Amino acid sequence: MEIIEILILVISFVILLSVGVPISFSIGISSLLTMLMSINTIPSFTTISQRMATGLDSFALLAIPFFILAGQLMNVGGIARRLINFAKILVGKLPGGLAFVNIMAAMMFGAISGSAVAAASAIGGFMAPVMKKEGYNESFSAAVNITSATTGMIIPPSNILIVYSLASGGVSIAALFLAGYVPGILLGLSLMIVAFIYAKKNKYKVNYHVTFGEAVKTFFDAIPSLLLIIIVIGGIVAGYFTATEASAVAVLYAFILSVFIYKEVKLKDLYDILLTSASTTAIVMLLIGTSMAMSWVMAYENIPQNVAEALITLSNNKIIILIIINLILLFVGVFMDMTPAVLIFTPIFLPVAQQLGIDPIHFGIIMVMNLSIGLCTPPVGSVLFVGCSVANLPIAKVIKPLIPLFIAMIVTLMFVTYLPELSLTVPRWFGY
Q: Mean pLDDT throughout 301-313?
């Protein structure tokens, strides 16, 4: 009977997705259908609704709407432009300099907003016309913007790391944030290597020149934006406030910066900003609620235990098991958004990882890096769609230049997977 219920869960979910039902509804309906096979109708509806409500009843989740709102304020508050100008000062004179600028600006914007979609939209919107004017291939420019935007999912503050903390049963959010720095920077550097080779091959010229006075002005103009990283992460690490409280501080700081210091957000603009933030938050929270319900159904059907036993039976070699988990997560990332994927597959794979002696903090970074790659792939890659929309290009034209960047991302993933110190050294420095 258990096998039948598992098949109903998987098959109904796949069918609903394939016919275009939104992923949150697909998750909820397939979970309900599975429960109907286990117990009678009334408890099934009650149980699913209770699990959704219980899944959202978490203080840590309050950080997500706050960080979403902070990201929206930054997106329209002139912060992206200042970060791009600052990145130009640092790397604009290198071969392929504008591609480097895109990558570095996306890393900094992601480190401030915690959103890959916001980074792809804000940075890509500025960089696409500039790179086109300088003779860069439009498809390559879009591919660089799309892949570099995902660094914001690893470099803190990251909403998806907060979700992983919830799904893992309480792994320290501060430790996860600290663990993301080195892998996120390595990912950015790997993309820069590909951009450098591409620029050399296509003989892109360096036309960026700036005086010392302009460089100093640009630096000081960007300092208030960069200070947000120090305030948010520094406050969490120093113990002044929790990640949730830090998200509220981020909103307050971004509001002051955008409205009163940079003066690029008018009070009349706040209605649209709040409406967009509320809409995005509703989508994310519905995903979290239905995903928590599906996670409970899977636990009820003993799916995590069965998968763990199957993997351990298949091999007790850590290298082989990690390869299998990585391949599964890469495949999942192609078809599922990050939030439900983390909530559904963390309870399945984390026990396996812990049996192999893998630190939950390290495994969280592995999982997020895997699923970040899925953000750049069809059919559900949200960053891919936003990046192509900003560049005004069809997805088919961007796939070819994306391939070498994908390879760089996967190589970095392998380094992070098999060298745990890349993730764990910084948290250990701070006592985690």
A: 77
At 260, the amino acid letter reads: F
Burial 2-39 (b: 16+ CB within 10 A, else e): eeebbebbeebbeebbeeebebbebbbbbbbbbbbbbe
Q: What are the boundaries of each domain within the chain?
A: 1-57+285-300, 58-265+301-429
DSSP-derived letter for residue 259 is I
Confidence (pTM) = 0.84
10 Å Cβ neighbour count for 220?
10
Contact status, residue 205 vs residue 199, Cβ threshold 8 Å: no
Is 52 strand, coil or helix? helix
The predicted structure's pLDDT at residue 301? 76
- Whether the CB-CB separation of 118 and 73 falls below 8 Å is answered with no
Q: Which own/partner contact pairs does 265-269 have at CB distance under 8 Å and 24+ positions apart?
A: 265/73, 265/76, 265/77, 269/76
End-to-end CA distance of the chain: 44
What lies within 8 Å, CB to CB, of 164 at 6+ separation is 171, 176, 342, 346, 364, 367, 368
